[in-house]
Amino acid sequence: MKRILVIDDEEWLREMVRIALRQRGFDVLEAANGVQGIEIARRELPDLILCDVNMERVDGYLTLSALRGETSTASIPFILMTGLADNAGMRHGMELGADDYLPKPFTIEALSAAVDVRLKKAQVLRQEAERKLADLRDNISLMLPHELRTPLNGILAYGEILFTDAATLPPAEIAEMGKVIYDSGRRLERLVENFLIYAQIELLAADSQKAGSLRHKRIDSPAPLIEQHARSQAQSAARLQDLILELTDVPIAISDHYLGKIVDELVQNAFRFSPGATPVRVALAALPDSVALHVSDRGHGFSPEHIRRVGAYMQFDRKLYEQQGVGLGLEIAKRLTELHGGTLTIQSQPGIHTMVTARLPKPPACEA
């Protein structure tokens, strides 16, 4: 049974709403003012809140703001009820996080319709969140053991051979085994590094002061840095001949470290998911109010659904394509771009072409 909290200082209105909603099978909680309403909402966590705007001491806006500021109550659907539904008041309520307005006086039919719409929308959002959580669990459970065991198998197998048979092995074979162990170790290192940097990004995003300080960084000449990182990824993929660089050297508001990480992740993905002997283009261009980093390839690409679902620990069509990594790279590039006040977009025609664009702001002194 869905529970609805009604917060209003007029007893007759609470009674009318209570009777109407109970007839429709809802459990109704009541509060005579904002202070009581906040306390009951925290304790009972109702499925929906109906709250009057004009109340003494703690009005509807303050009640809404208090509940939106707490994790446990932030997502509860909230409908403001008011007899003064002017545009400025409605805009203020929506800015605070109200889901709907119910102008007074209202009919039972209008009350029922507003409640139904908000509960249905909350159910859709809940189902979508549950689906994303299920996808996340599936991706982690499928990918993480593979990503950890594959390089470990190489390290352990060749390490055992070197330990037991080193005296009988020719130098060339020892060197080859050492190369496999080194490459496997680097793969594990990158996996751990991406876990750590993703956790760091999430902590930065939660701290507005630290996140704001990132936007004061600047690189006056980013082209050499971008070229260095792009060439390094091309060399690792044994595809230096496929790399095309078109770099306009224009200042960017970001640190060397984070720009290098964005380039690494985007260029590595472009080489990983495109066939050899096809071009991977890395371009840097000045726009009127920002700088655009484009990385394009001619690989298998993204479907519109895949673009919509890009996120941490997400991989697509793993059964069709061999993939390494846990799907953090693109999300790390996206989150770093957004933390610096930019945007990351993907344009793709499956099987033909993909271009990822990170738009980053210019330093203040460079803006027109």
Topology readout:
Layout lengths: L2 E5 L3 H13 L3 E5 L2 H11 L3 E5 L7 H9 L9 E5 L4 H10 L3 E4 L4 H58 L5 H36 L1 H7 L8 H14 L6 E5 L8 H17 L7 E7 L3 E8 L6 H5 L20 H11 L3 E7 L3 E9 L7
Parallel strand pairs: 1-2, 1-3, 3-4, 4-5, 6-7
Antiparallel strand pairs: 7-8, 8-10, 9-10
Descriptive notes:
The structure is a single chain. The chain is of the alpha/beta class and 368 residues long. The chain has 11 helices and 10 strands. Residues 311-326 have low confidence and may be disordered.
Number of helices: 11
Indicate the radius of gyration in whole angstroms: 28 Å
SSE run: EHEHEHEHEHHHHEHEEHHEE
Task: Predict the CATH topology of the largest domain.
Answer: Heat Shock Protein 90
Number of domains: 3
The CATH superfamily of the largest domain turns out to be: Histidine kinase-like ATPase, C-terminal domain
Any descriptors?
single chain, 368 residues, alpha/beta, Rossmann fold, Helix Hairpins, Heat Shock Protein 90, 3 domains, 5-stranded parallel beta sheet, 5-stranded mixed beta sheet, 10 strands, elongated
